[in-house]
Amino acid sequence: REDSIERERESSQMAEKPRPVRVLYCGVCSLPAEYCEFGSDFEKCKPWLNQNAPELYPDLRKEANAKEAEKVSDQLRSTLISEGIAPSGASSTSKQEEVKRHPGGKIKKKEKQEVVIEKVVRNKRKCITTVKGLDLFGVKLSDASKKLGKKFATGASVVKGPTEKEQIDVQGDIAYDIVEFITETWPDVPETAIFFIEDGKKVPAV
Asked: Domain of life here (predicted)?
């Protein structure tokens, strides 16, 4: 009976003996794979984890598949556009329309080259003349601002307009005096490309 009790005790001790745990270390940051998301190089670790430990981060597989699908879609769209075929759900692009290609095959219409001048009254008294579009003709706005300020002896500065595009704000009402100065100072800007905003409508300067 004592032998039986001893054997049960030894069996119990063997059952309680912990087994060695295998730890998978990341091949990028050297941390245990399950701790990669807390490290500073998690973005760099993602490809390695996706390949070697997908069960730890199932969302990475979904993310990778989504990116791959988007990449294939962009490549297909780019191929169709280069062949002059409009992708499904998109209107066909006129051959006369100029387009600008962006990374990923996305396209954007090239902005029409024109200078738009508008007189804005602020605080019911302060008048400012805004000039938009000079940069589309290769004019450096900071230089143009200095020249306008010097020419009309007033303050002029480059600011971001309502659409987040940079424009020049010139203090004072110089809208109709500024056209001749622009065409003389920057010959690449034709007078036919200059417009005024009057009563909310765009009208040609000539």
From this structure: Eukaryota
- What is the CB neighbour count within 10 angstroms for residue 196? 17
pLDDT per position as a tens digit, 7-55: 666 655 554 555 566 778 888 888 887 777 777 787 888 888 878 887 7
**Which residue spans of the chain are classified as CATH 3.30.780.10?**
115-204
Q: What is the pLDDT of residues 50-77, one digit of tens each?
A: 788 877 777 777 777 777 777 777 777 7
CA–CA separation, 95 vs 59, rounded Å? 43
Class of 115-204 per CATH? alpha beta
